[in-house]
Amino acid sequence: MSNKAGDQNIVYAKIHPSVGIARVGNSTAEDGFYIGPQVAEPAPKPPGFYRDKTGALKREVAEFRIYGYDAAGKVVRELNMEDGVEIAWIVELANQKAGWYNFELAMDIPEASTAPASTRRNASVVERRTLRILPGPRTIETPETHGAGYRFGGGTCFGIEVPLGELRTDSMGRLQVFGGHGKSASADGKVPTTFANNDGWYDDTSDGPVTARVTLDGRELEVAPAWVVVAPPNYGPQQKSVRTMYALMTDLAIQAGQLPTPQKPSFRDDILPMLKAMCDLQWMNAGFAAGFGYGMPQHFVAPDYLHKLSQPGETYAELRRTVANAFRNPDDGDVSLKPWPWVYGDDMDIPMPESPRAMNAVTPTQLALLERWANGDFVSDYDPASAPPRSLDEVPIQEQPAMLDRAALEFCLADAFHPGCEMTWPVRHATMYMEPYRWRHRQPGYEEPDYGKTLTVREALSYDGPLFAQFPGSITRWMAIPWQTDTASCRSGYDKQYDPYLPTFWPARVPNQVLSEENYRKVMNTDLGRDVRLAAFHVRSDWDRTLGAGPDHQLLMMVEHFDRQGIVEVRDGIPNDPDFPPVMQVEDRGGNDLSREERLMTDSGMRRLHIIGTPKD
């Protein structure tokens, strides 16, 4: 029997995070993994953390916990596998990409109504079930457990077995979901040719429901289920988008009446994150570095600037107003590339269409909070001496579930749904949710209707259609196949006459231009002249320079060698220097050697950007 205080008050339980994120990686080492973010501002990892000893990328693991709630909805405690508590975790991963429909455009934007209907991927395959990787559910119910019986093997695509990952538990019985190893291949030996829809191809990303049976002192509790999404690697683990997936889902819940409308923004929690995200993207995109980087006019996190922005009253009212007005507001119908953030939108194309959806914007809730901040109606709560919790242990138990939900989604993108990095446009529909941040689940055994050879907008948005309750593989099926082709294709600065670096697609996850190891060493070498060091600091190298030349070749190289791409990691900078920041972010390529020509270019200190390849199809 449990002797924990308050257990008699527990009447139901919930799994957190409500949406967990795992990521593929090609490390096969025993310790070649790490637990994904569990707080909104995690401490930076040491250099080399995201690779194993061979340079392979570690897998990011989604860890799930169960919390007991009382009748008033208050968290009582975390429930672990211990005396008086029995837990059986059930997870089902699936990949249904090859049997779904081609991605052409987000189907919920006005432009989709006049676009052709989406046709099937691998349309010539009659037995559609053979295109779905369905290994079935796995159950795990003892602590410190892993092994062959908990692996998601047995699922096939084109008759080829495609393992999707495995389950483990830690010593407390918390669930750990591992995704695949980033294995993508063609069943017929054809090379990939497009960013999203490559027939004959499969990959080992996946998604599916996470449920649990919990018995507390002989009482079986109702348990709110969760979901896990296995996504591509995170090449910018310390970065956040200006509009995160958490911000999008928060706005969705507010618009649907599931969360209260915020009345007064917190500068620290609501305004600063948007400004800081644009500054942090200096390490991922050369245009953001010039606009918001260290020492630049809009370096919002400079102490003096930040102090002014955080002050209420009339003294800096016009400063607040000019910053707030610089953000794109879709209600204005503005089709210019210039408002913030400088990120492509769902209707992006080459040449850029005259559409307000060709560029991204922060959420309506964020825009409303910016307006109130500009008017001086905000909580001036910024304290430069305060520090956010860096681990979940620093968070009070009552706040841990919400923090887990937030942390997982803060590091997912809500940038251009074209289609996206972790998930795409269906997640902005309230019909998918049972409560904020938690998706509805279909009943096990549900068979989705056959939508036919094409999927129309009307079918996609219909009641009880694909945007209602979800089932294994129904989240990631909308994404690119294989994932590497989209990651290699979505870049920045397609219109060189406008800007060679801006706008950009997904810089927080997929870097565009980075501070290389070679130039970082120059910056840190105080024996060099300041002009040489300054030149090195302001040079940004193409992140995708390892992929070679020619679009088809680049796609294949990303499939075969996605681990060679740099991870942008935090390094020490120069303290108390007007030209160099005290903390920098630098590309780690895991020991992959530069070509002789590239080394000569970087050593000269004169390397500049050359964006190779073509825009997304």
Account of the 3D structure:
- Strands 1, 2, 3, 4, 5, 6, 8, 11, 12, 15, 16 and 17 form a twelve-stranded mixed sheet that branches. Strands 7-20 form a two-stranded antiparallel sheet. It has a two-stranded antiparallel ribbon with strand order 9-10.
- Helix content is 19%, strand content 17%.
- Helix 10 runs antiparallel to helix 11.
- The chain is globular.
- 48% of the residues are buried.
- It contains 13 helices and 24 strands.
- The longest helix is centred in the middle third of the chain and has 14 residues.
- A hairpin with a 2-residue loop joins strand 15 and strand 16.
- It is α+β, with helices and mostly antiparallel strands and 617 residues long.
- The C terminus is likely disordered.
Short characterization:
The chain is of the alpha+beta class. Helices cover 19% and strands 17% of the residues. The C terminus is likely disordered.
